[in-house]
Hints:
The complex is a heterodimer of chains A (307) and B (276). Chain A is α/β, with parallel strands linked by helices and 307 residues long.
Amino acid sequence: MTSAEFPAGAPAKMAAVAAAAGTRSAAGTRAAAGPKTPPPSIEFESVSFAYPDGTQALSGVSLRVEPGEVVAIVGQNGSGKSTLVKQLNGLLRPVAGRVLLDGSDIRSIHVARLAARVGLAFQNPDRQLFANRVSAEVGFGPRNLGLRGADIAERVAAALDAVGLSPAAETHPYDLGYSKRKLLAMASVLAMRTPILVLDEPTTGQDARGVASVRAVVAGAAAEGRTVIAISHDMRFVAECFPRVIVMRGGRVALDGTRESVFGEASWPELHAAYLEPPLPAVLGARLGLGSTPTEVAVVAALRARQ
Amino acid sequence: MSIGTPAQIASAAPDSRRGLPDYVLRRPTGLYRSLNPATKLAIAALQVVAAFVVPGWLGPVAVLAVLVVVAVATRTLRDTVRIGLAAVPLVVSIMVVNLFLLPGAADPIGRFGPLAPTWTGLQFGLLTSARLLAFSTAITVAYLTTPVDDLLADLSRRGLGRRGVFVVGAGVQMVPRTLERAGEIMDAQRARGLDTEGRIWRRARAVVPLAGPLVLGALTEVEERTMALEARAFSAPGRQTLLRVPADSTRERLIRWIALAAILAMAALRLTGRMG
């Protein structure tokens, strides 16, 4: 377990986690500077989606994400996680049901316009990096949003600082290692300062320092009131950073609740059915009678008491 | 160590088959799909030659009719049409060029200012387009009805070196892989606000962000794939073991010889002027 408390609850606490990680400076905090207006609520109303080859990826998904919520979506490969978040910015459109932002159906809104509200960092950075400098890559999104000159420079600097890539600003993206390219892809979305931030498998391929950077980004965005949605197979990361967890299985929502309830022993059969393992602290907590989200201190104390 | 013949593997108890890759156990179903990949290639070659060598409309029309029947029987008609639509720009350009610019054509359909489309040009353009469609459809149907791993296994069995097999495999899989990658890149850039559906100058601006990752990703992938192959003893000396050998038979060998003979006969007749 990390030194951080396992269930860092409120956004303020998560910001403290970010500070503890030591990866964010003042400029870094500005990188995730929240939107002037609060993020819109997100609502999926009986959303179904099938790919052209007939694969039914989503079947009647209904859920609501309140402004400023920090939500993790977990599930086995092919359970519909990525398909679900791609509905948010119009990359995919439901074949049935509706997706609403602040109560408005986004069906007819162009992807380029939705990109100003929903920032989506893809899993594979090599599917998007094209510029010959890291700073130019990060400036691509803000430029598409209509920003110019100093505004872009300020956002680029802040976003790079947020992920710890400031020293590499003039480097060619492909001279960076995979984990840094992944952080770069994340910075390029952070620089757009969208009220909703969606991260697809942000910790995959990251070492401990990279994971700490990702944690800091999530905590910072949450502290600023932005809605954060992350898809992840990293249950420890999910348990540490996301107060709400949605489990998907076979294109449906199998579980949706607080991490305490989703990782609680009563939900383990459902987690196992979705080919997921509860995080180790949850297992320890259940075995030691400490609940599903014990702190490291509580676990150590309980183990000592047993000796 | 021998793992047994395909028939033995297929009939083995489920426990003993556990862990084997899907393509080892998969059996093609249907008369055409279950043909040996070499037989399907021979048939496709015959169709292509017939479409171009048999004079007039008979060649391309007959070939297209046969291909439609095969596509329906193998349930690939929809995908065949979808892939065939990629040839539309080429067909349009063939039609336009021949309609208006065919040398020696002097039977105008009408006159539109300086342009004078001709009946001869129209006929030649349609015939050329039909041949082109027959060509592309023959390749498409063979591709859609032949799993790539079956084709590669069969080429290996026939003695094509492992490098040759790798080149063929990479070539065959390049188009679908590139399309898949292009789709992902398009999604990623649109998610960053790139407008790929607006006016023409906006689309032109999108070329570099879309083409850049496509090319760079392809280069990276080639490097990674090469290393992955080497890590799995790609260059090791000795004969490789084939996990699966696509079925072949005397009947199919006969079909291939007949196809080859027909191709040679048509070519000879055409060259000697006895076939139009």
